[in-house]
Amino acid sequence: MADPRALFDLSGKTACVTGASSGLGRRAAVALAAAGANVVAVARRAGALKSLCAEIGPAAAHVAADVADRGRLNALRDAVTAPFGAPEILVHAAGVNTRQAADDVTIAEWDQTLALNLSAPFFLSQALVPAMKDRGWGRIVNFASLQTTRAFPGGIAYGASKAGIGQLTRAMAEAWSPHGITANAIGPGFFPTELTQAVFSDDARAARNAAQTCIGRNGRLEDIDGPLLFLCSEASAYVTGQVLMVDGGFTAK
Fold it and tell me: What is the pLDDT of residue 196?
């Protein structure tokens, strides 16, 4: 039997990670590079991306861009392809959560949320899939949420977008997995990121969320590494169209 650790080796692969300037996107970029991949980090904040690339080293490049800007989609495709060639791995971690009550959400805020959280993962994937088809190998990892299946206060736009991610992931698998491209999603629980500052700044609230899990704690950034590398590697060759909840059992209760 061959060494099963080789299944997780990403040497020679190129990964594009959106939302890489902070939080789980940043952690994903670091983990993929540690597994041997070249990484193209994408986000709007150039300074944070430069810091990330300095940490990773020569295996990283960055593109400062708004992934929700459809008018720049072809330019973005070309920019992420330039440093190391067309990526075989695409991780969609960019997202926004306005945390507004249903009665207060404006049309502009609704459109902004769905454009970044739902439309951008599809259209960027659509732009990069042809090169994956040519290779006969690709990995797409979307970021779902607890709100993919549950309603939270102040989460009507965000929840709608993340529920859409669940179905988008299945539809991507149906469309592209015959070409060797798997499409899956990670559904994080409560992790300490910019999007969850309101949660973790309130100790009592954070403790209540931890108590909702089976494990009894909230997520740590390193908890995302194993599931992500599994879904981005040969180890998950027969897994597609799935949402893997990385939530300490929050949704199991």
Answer: 86
> What's the rounded Cα separation, in Å, for the pair 177 and 205?
41
**CATH label of the domain that carries residue 139:** 3.40.50.720
Residue 12 lies in a domain: no
What's the pTM value of the predicted model, to 2 decimals?
A: 0.96
pLDDT (0 to 100) of residue 248: 98
Question: What pLDDT is recorded for position 2?
Answer: 86
6, part of any domain: no
Catalytic annotation present for 238: no
Residues in the chain where the model's pLDDT stays below 70: none
Which of 158, 176, 190, 250 is catalytic? The answer is: 158
The answer to whether position 90 is within a domain reads yes
DSSP letters spanning the chain: ---GGGGG--TT-EEEEESTTSHHHHHHHHHHHHTT-EEEEEES-HHHHHHHHHHH-TTEEEEE--TT-GGGHHHHHHHHHTTTSS-SEEEE-------B-GGG--HHHHHHHHIIIIIHHHHHHHHHHHHHHHHT-EEEEEE--GGGTS--TTBHHHHHHHHHHHHHHHHHHHHHGGGTEEEEEEEE-S-SSGGGHHHHTSHHHHHHHHHTSSSSS---GGGGHHHHHHHHSGGGTT--S-EEEESTTGGG-
